[in-house]
Structure formats: structure tokens, C-alpha cells
TrEMBL record:
SMART domains named in the record: LIM
Residue span, LIM zinc-binding domain: 21-83, 85-147
GO molecular function annotation: DNA-binding transcription factor binding; transcription coactivator activity
PROSITE patterns per the UniProt record, alphabetical: LIM_DOMAIN_1, LIM_DOMAIN_2
GO biological process per UniProt: positive regulation of transcription by RNA polymerase II
Domain of life assignment: Eukaryota
Organism: Pygocentrus nattereri
A GO cellular component annotation in the UniProt record: nucleus
Protein's name in the database: LIM domain only 3
InterPro entries to which the protein is assigned, alphabetical: LMO_RBTN_TF (IPR050945), Znf_LIM (IPR001781)
Pfam families linked to this entry: LIM
Length: 155
């Protein structure tokens, strides 16, 4: 994976009677009510930002990514270092930061993940079948079974 580090971000409330901690981003003391702890350092909420898009990492989730001395949000980490692939249905490129659907080794754009005979889209929990590298809904899969007369292999 080549040095990819995903690190957790904790939000801590500052105890009023403790000595203020120094911020790893701006080197000033943290006098706010809350601070962030990440990479074994302390940060102002405004100082822990993605090196690319400047989003505040404490707001976009509880994880940050480090690579090549950069601190990044997930989207920029994947955009810069993620592996892109091609959609098994439309063959077009899938950017690394996009959400995808997977079936065995195949990867699909969310919009392309549909029955390849009737174009029915799948919802979470719907059954789908992969036959000869085609995604099929249950109806089309079972109709295919009737025509061909082969025994179903439910996985």
C-alpha cells in the first residue's frame, strides 16, 4: 500500500484548569473549548485542514490520511493516490474518489449497477446475480434458468 496512513481524529474538550496545549498547525496555545487530537499532536479545529482543499478535517469525518508529508481528507487522498479503474458495464473510467459497487472482481459506477437486460436498478439488500459477467435481477436470472434448463447456483 506504499505508506498510506489513515489516522483517527479525536475531538476533546479542554479542561479549564489545565495548561493550554500548543497547536501543531500554528504553534499558538489552544484556548478554545475544544481541540482536536490527531497524529499524536493537538490542533485548533481551524488548523487541522486538508492540504489540498482546505476543508476542516474535524468536520468532514473522524479520519485523515497522510502521505508524502501531506495531511489530506479522504476525497483528496483518493484523488491523488487512489487507484482508478474502469466500469465493468460502460467501460468508462471510474475516478478513485467516486462511490462504486462491486461484484466479485468487477467494479461499477453506481448508475451503471443495474440489471443488464431490463435496466432495473438495485436497492440495498436486493438480490442480484452475476452470470457470464452480466449483472441480472432475480426475475431475468430465473427466466434464463427456465430457458436454458440449468440448475441455479446461489452464492
Amino acid at each position: 500500500r506504499g505508506g498510506r496512513k489513515s489516522e483517527s481524529i479525536q475531538m476533546l474538550s479542554v479542561q479549564p484548569d489545565t495548561k493550554p496545549k500548543g497547536c501543531a498547525g500554528c504553534n499558538r496555545k489552544i484556548k478554545d473549548r475544544y481541540l482536536l487530537k490527531a497524529l499524536d499532536k493537538y490542533w485548533h479545529e481551524d488548523c487541522l485542514k486538508c492540504a489540498c482543499c482546505d476543508c476542516r478535517l474535524g468536520e468532514v469525518g473522524s479520519t485523515l490520511y497522510t502521505k508524502a508529508n501531506l495531511i489530506l481528507c479522504r476525497r483528496d487522498y483518493l484523488r491523488l493516490f487512489g487507484v482508478t479503474g474502469n466500469c465493468a458495464a460502460c467501460s468508462k473510467l471510474i475516478p478513485a474518489f467516486e462511490m462504486v459497487m462491486r461484484a466479485k472482481e468487477n467494479v461499477y459506477h453506481l448508475d451503471c449497477f443495474a440489471c443488464q437486460l431490463c435496466n432495473q436498478r438495485f436497492c440495498v439488500g436486493d438480490k442480484f446475480f452475476l452470470k457470464n459477467n452480466m449483472i441480472l435481477c432475480q426475475t431475468d436470472y430465473e427466466e434464463g434458468l427456465m430457458k436454458e434448463g440449468y440448475a441455479p447456483q446461489v452464492r
